[in-house]
Structure formats: C-alpha cells, structure tokens
C-alpha cells in the first residue's frame, strides 16, 4: 500500500502545484500527508471491494472477469477521491492552489493508471501466492501418496503378517493338506498383487476385488467365525477403476479399530449403490483402549491419495452399531 500510495501522492501534488511542490518543504510535507491520509482511507474501500469480488468470483477462470468488474468500480471511486483532494485544496486556498482543467484531467488519468497498476499487481501477487501454496500442497500430498502406498504394502509384507500366515499354514499342513495348499495359493495371489500394483495409480475394480477375496480367505482362516465377509457388486462396475490397495487399507483400518470376537462377529460387506459408488459397510465394536487420534490418522493416507488423484472424497457415515464408507469409482 505505502509502496504505491506514497509515490502516487507525490505525483498528484506535483501535478497540482508544479515545481513549487518540491521547492517548498512545508508544502511538500503537508500536501503529502493530506493526500496520503485520504488515499490510505480510499485504499481500504478499494480493498473491501476487492475482497467481496474475490469471494464472489474465486475461481482461476474468473480472474479477468474479477479484474474487469474491479476496474469498473475502482475508476469512479478513485476519480471521486482525487476530485475531493483538489476541491479541498481549492476550497481552503491551500498554499495558493489554483484549479486548472488540464491538471485536473491529468490527475484523473493518473488515477486510471494507478488502478490498473495496483489491480494487476495485486492479482499477480495473489496468483503467485496461490501457485506457491498449491505447489507446496501438491508436494506434500505426493509424499503422503507414496507413504500410503508403502503403508499398504508394509501392512501385509511386514514380518508380523508373514509370521501369522506361515504359522497358520504350518498348522494346516498336518490337519488338512488340501486346505493348506489352497491357503498357500491364495497367499501367493496376495503377494503377487501387492508386488505388481503397489506403484500404479489405478486398477480395475475386478482386479482389486480378486485380491480382496484372496486376502479375505487368509483372514477367514485366521479368525474363523469371528469375522464375516460378503461382496455383492454389479457387473457394470467391475471395469471401473480404483486406486490399488484402497480396500485393503480401509479394511485394515476397520480390523485395527474393532474387536474381533466369535460372540459378536465383525461383519464387513462390499457393495455398489445406485450411483455406482463402492460401499464398505461394517459393524462397529470399538476397542476399549481405542485412540481417537490414531483412528483419524489411519484414514489420512487413503483420503490424501484421493485428493492427490483429484477424485471425489470418501463419504463416511457413522451410526450406532455400524459405519458406512462410500468410495468413488472412476470411469
């Protein structure tokens, strides 16, 4: 504000008083102080208008429209303020000021130049700040996206999961060799999918569900009747796309936040709704020592992944006894 208004106030007074403005120090300081004070007040009015228009036309594609309307409002306001300053000088006989139409026109023209300069400078700085903020956010989301992929892989490849799977397999071999062979086959499918799709942005829903069925099989062997799965999706949705490991991360979240008991089995259903969104429905039996902050953090990776890929956000609906997570599918 001061960087623009101080030199502009000096320009107006130079037009009004000519060379005497720079040769009479008392005139210089008083005229500059008066003009600058009026201009600072007027600047606040301009700022208020700019803020209202920024809220009304916030999109990047509306920049020129916002600038055009701003200038149409700023031109008469600045002309009125400049006229008031010269009228004040003339009315008070300020240092022998004499009104000249030519000088008045020059002051009005200078106001047009001021508004054009200030408006485009403000828009340029504003857009630059938005660009920096967007760049910073994009970089952060890229890191979160990479972290979410790594977390999805680690949640299955970590030694704890591997140990449990091998332990389950070793117990099945003497009891039921045929079932053990099937368990090993499904376990290989899980790892194959994880290794092949941990870097891609999208996979078909059909591929994701094939992986989830194999993963469900392993979990079902481990938890038995304490957990219940069901998948019922339309054929038309199978070729739609979804970020890989999305369902696995969400189900891991559900398993980590709920008690798994044969008395009250944890029910998980995956279906599609009329809007062709994927829905993950599960019953709620929260752990007694559940950390609310941890619960929110565990969903952050999936949500950031969807933001980074510019997808519609997940919709989460919680009611007593169950929770519904709606996931957008991509054509």
Describe the protein in words.
The protein has 2 domains: 2-135, no CATH class; 158-327, Heat Shock Protein 90 (2-Layer Sandwich). The protein has a 5-stranded mixed beta sheet, with helices on one face. It has helices spanning 2-17, 20-23, 25-56, 63-92, 101-157, 159-175, 177-197, 205-223, 246-257, 292-308; strands at 203-204, 227-232, 241-242, 266-272, 278-283, 315-319, 322-327. The model has no long low-confidence stretch (mean pLDDT 84). By secondary structure, the chain is an alpha+beta fold. It has 10 helices and 7 strands. Helix 1 (2-17) crosses helix 3, helix 4 (63-92) packs antiparallel against helix 5 and helix 9 packs antiparallel against helix 10 (292-308).
Provide a quick synopsis of the model.
The protein is an alpha+beta fold.
SSE arrangement:
Elements: H1 2-17, H2 20-23, H3 25-56, H4 63-92, H5 101-157, H6 159-175, H7 177-197, E1 203-204, H8 205-223, E2 227-232, E3 241-242, H9 246-257, E4 266-272, E5 278-283, H10 292-308, E6 315-319, E7 322-327
Parallel strand pairs: 2-4
Antiparallel strand pairs: 1-3, 4-5, 5-7, 6-7
Helix pairs in contact: 1-3, 1-5, 3-4, 4-5, 5-10, 6-7, 7-8, 9-10
């Amino acid at each position: 504000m001061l960087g623009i208004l101080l030199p502009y106030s000096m320009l107006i007074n130079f037009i009004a008083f000519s060379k005497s403005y720079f040769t009479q120090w008392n005139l210089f300081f008083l005229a500059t102080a008066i003009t600058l004070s009026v201009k600072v007040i007027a600047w606040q009015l301009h700022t208020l208008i700019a803020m209202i228009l920024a809220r009304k036309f916030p999109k990047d594609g509306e920049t020129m429209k916002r600038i055009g309307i701003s200038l149409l409002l700023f031109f008469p306001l600045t002309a009125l303020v400049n006229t008031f300053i010269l009228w004040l000088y003339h009315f008070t006989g300020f240092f022998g000021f004499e009104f000249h139409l030519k000088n008045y026109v020059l002051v009005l023209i200078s106001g047009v130049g001021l508004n054009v300069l200030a408006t485009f400078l403000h828009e340029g700085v504003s857009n630059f700040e938005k660009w920096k903020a967007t760049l910073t956010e994009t970089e952060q989301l890229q890191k979160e996206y990479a972290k979410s992929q790594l977390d999805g892989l680690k949640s299955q490849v970590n030694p704890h999961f591997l140990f449990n799977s091998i332990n389950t397999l070793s117990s099945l071999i003497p009891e039921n060799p045929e079932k053990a062979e099937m368990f090993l086959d499904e376990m290989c499918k899980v790892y194959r999918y994880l290794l092949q799709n941990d870097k891609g942005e999208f996979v078909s829903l059909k591929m994701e569900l094939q992986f989830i069925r194999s993963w469900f099989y392993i979990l079902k062997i481990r938890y038995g009747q304490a957990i219940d799965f069901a998948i019922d999706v339309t054929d038309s949705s199978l070729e739609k796309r979804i970020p890989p490991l999305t369902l696995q991360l969400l189900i891991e979240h559900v398993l980590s936040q709920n008690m798994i008991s044969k008395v009250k089995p944890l029910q998980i259903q995956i279906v599609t709704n009329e809007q062709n969104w994927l829905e993950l429905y599960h019953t709620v039996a929260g752990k007694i020592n559940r950390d609310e902050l941890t619960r929110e953090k565990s969903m952050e990776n999936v949500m950031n992944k969807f933001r980074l890929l510019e997808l519609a956000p997940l919709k989460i609906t919680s009611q007593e006894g169950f929770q519904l997570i709606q996931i957008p599918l991509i054509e």
